Prior knowledge:
The structure holds three protein chains of three kinds.
Chain A: H1 10-39, H2 47-72, H3 81-98, H4 102-124, H5 129-148, E1 159-160, H6 178-199, H7 202-212, H8 214-219, H9 224-250, E2 252-253, H10 255-259, H11 261-274, H12 281-300, H13 307-322, H14 334-341
Antiparallel strand pairs in A: 1-2
Helix pairs in contact in A: 1-6, 2-6, 2-9, 2-11, 2-12, 3-4, 3-9, 4-9, 6-7, 6-9, 7-9, 11-12, 12-13
Chain B: H1 3-34, H2 41-59, H3 63-89, H4 96-119, E1 135-138, E2 141-144, H5 145-167, H6 169-179, H7 181-186, H8 191-216, H9 223-238, H10 243-263, H11 269-283
Antiparallel strand pairs in B: 1-2
Chain C: E1 11-20, E2 23-33, E3 38-42, H1 49-57, E4 64-69, E5 72-73, H2 79-85, E6 87-89, H3 102-110, H4 117-130, H5 146-158, E7 164-168, H6 176-191, E8 195-199, H7 203-206, E9 212-217, E10 220-225, H8 227-230, H9 234-247
Parallel strand pairs in C: 3-8, 3-9, 6-7, 7-8
Antiparallel strand pairs in C: 1-2, 1-4, 4-5, 9-10
Helix pairs in contact in C: 3-4, 3-5, 4-5
Amino acid sequence: MTAATTPLAPALARAEASHAARRRRKLIVAALVFAGLAALPYGLRDVYLQNVLILTLMYAALAQSWNILGGYCGQVSLGHALYFGAGAYATTVLFVTYGVLPWFGMLAGGLLSAAVALLLGYPCFRLAGHYFSIATIVIAEIGLLLVHNWDFVGGAMGIQWPFNPDSWWTLQFARDKVPYIHFAIAFLALVWFVTWLIEGSRWGYWWRAVKDDAQAAESLGVEVFRSKMAAAAVSAFFTAIGGGFYAAYVSYIDPESVMSFRFSLLFALPAVLGGIGTLWGPLVGAAILIPLTEISRSYLGGGGKGLDLMLYGILVMVVALARPEGVLSLFRPRKARAEEATP
Amino acid sequence: MTAQALVQVLASGLLMGLIYALIAVGLSLIFGLMDVVNFAHGEFLMLAMYATFGLVLVTRLDPVVLMPLVAALLFVLGAAAYLGVVRFAMRAKANQGMVQIFATFGLAILLQGAAQYLFTPDYRNVPNSWLGGRTLDLGGIFLPWPQIFGALVSLAAFGGLHLLMSRTDFGRALKATREDQGAVALVGIDRNRVFALGWGLGAALVGLAGAVLAIFYYIHPQVGASFALIAYVTVALGGFGSVAGALVAGIIVGLVEALTAVILPPALKSVGVYALYLAVVFVRPQGLFGRL
Amino acid sequence: MSETPVTEPLLRIDHVTLRFGGLVANADVSLAVPEGQILGLLGPNGAGKSTLFNLISGTYRPSEGRIVFRGEDITDLSAPERCRRGIARTFQVPRSFDSMNVLENVVVGGFARHATAAAARRVALETLDFAGLGHRADAVAGELTPPEKRRLEVARALATEPTLLLLDEVLTGLTPSEAKAGVELIRKVAARGVTVIMVEHVMEVVMPLVDRAVVLHLGRVLAEGHPTEVVRHDGVITAYLGERHRAA
């Protein structure tokens, strides 16, 4: 290309400036949203609602983590419970058995999960579409079965966190749940910010190119396999952090309560519901899905009647069928939607 | 391990493998027809088991007699699932693969909830059936009659499926549709009708499996999920879309599972199957008999 | 290396054969493309033009033979590696990234040589302007008209700053005025020193544009030379022009 020092044409300079402004605006909106969320618990003293809020924020962050691989890079993993479990177990075992503070345990779990993701990615990313998704389910199931039969990590019995006074060091808060809310917001903000950073970088462009058309991407210099590996590692890392947080929050884990398949589904669904491959989709999806399922479970789920499940299932179907691009696509410019509607 | 014990393990594995093949073949058939993985397949199986249970309670007839009726009910369920859900999932212009996955998952959750609502989450079993609890003694090798019956049903179903695919107009339409969806429209085959019938057929096959399974397996709303994973593995191992592949892979899965249970703790019996599946698809992504 | 840069062509295809099972898509094809040329690659459907593109760009590996680019044997390099060495291509059926807008599509190309987003975006903006798509920078790629999509394909490939550009039927299916605009763009590209190989059906448009024409038939090179000579070649007339002239 010609010398990069020549000034851009005015129209292009304007496009570049508006792009920079848009990126900045997203950051400002995010800062306002997260600050607003941080103030929320002070007006919310009900323990039940606090729990719903914590779960919503946590699943929003986990869905954003899933979104990195599933939404941006287009690799639909249905086995992220493996990384969630790895994070929960690493944090718990390091803390309960070796006295390592959960903060370091989460980091260790995150790094472990990223390493596992790279190891598994090597064979798995040769598989495409449904073949990939099914392999991820099976691998997570193997992980679950192995942990179930591994006495060192408590086997089927699981591990109970010891009782300690409330402290940010050990992330244990028995009396007041507000610190968990703040941790969850910080976690969500961190994953959001990392996603924002990546979205504007080479990896972000490469991932979306891989999702849209891997062969065309290759011809433009995109390292497809490396892109998938990088997305898998980042995604697994943050999923494991979430697992560590969840373990601290519920202070008791066993294989089913952190590694069962329903978690894999729960990480993917908010992203799909809100809009995959978007910065706000996972949060919007989680804000709809998690309160709805939690509240319907409390009011309809009494005695295991199954009405809450039916509602949940219908919701998932309706979302998938009615808004394949997620709820966020409702807010896109009208012109884009009109053209999308015509075949 | 004595030779007799080994034969016992292999014979049990073979019988169970044929039943796995019957559970899986409907999934493979549907995928071969239209490239859709039905993530509610396990719930179809679960509903077939409940249907058997319910019909036995109401009619006082034996599950063996009720089997065709269960298959017919599942045929209706399968066709309805296509017409009511999957048909719309295939129209999605964006993220089609993902839409299919989550639409059928939603259906699975709905069906689980419905089963829980109608039958409670309690474990059920079909009491006092002709075959339940009986075993055949072949010179020291004991084979349970329900499994023998299931294996025979499976073989008969595969034979019937083969005849259906090769001898009937419907079979030819199925085949033509899986070869080239665009072309069949030109020769006047209604694609939607073929798909609906294909889903009905796939569900009817898993209906037979459910009726067999209900004789010797406990029934609860989550029972489908455990068999579903085995079914996906079987189909992926045999090659998505391949009917013969489902049969061979089902038998392999049954045998490997039985042998794993000898070597590892019984709770880990599926690990051998999953490991084999991963080993195969990592070397041969299209499975044993699949086309890419 | 024994090659002297003066005589070594930019791209040399050496006895390349590609088989799919029993099917031979390209049989013993040899070509040399000197730097700065516009080469027309012609031939009826199934002549092996697109597979040859796939061999040069790295989508396929040849069963036999080798491909040398700027004196380096690139036969075993992956597609992205070849792209970074200066080979870019378009696809016969445009394959835009439809979840992105036009500019973002081109930025993907810009990242081939620039690691930072600022540099990649700058290249992309300049390329868009150069390709005459600057006014559509914010449009969603899926909403472009067919000729705009072709332009986007070219712009995206150009953003990788190639020395060799492979154009697969970028002029096919365009109206005469659109085709004329397309020809102008290709001339502009060549004027910057980019070597171009173009696959095309529409002889009338291509002939005045290309410096040299190669006619493929049944996977082999049938004729090669100046466009005016090639059209007079007997084999070409029967194998190709007879039917194609009417079709076009």
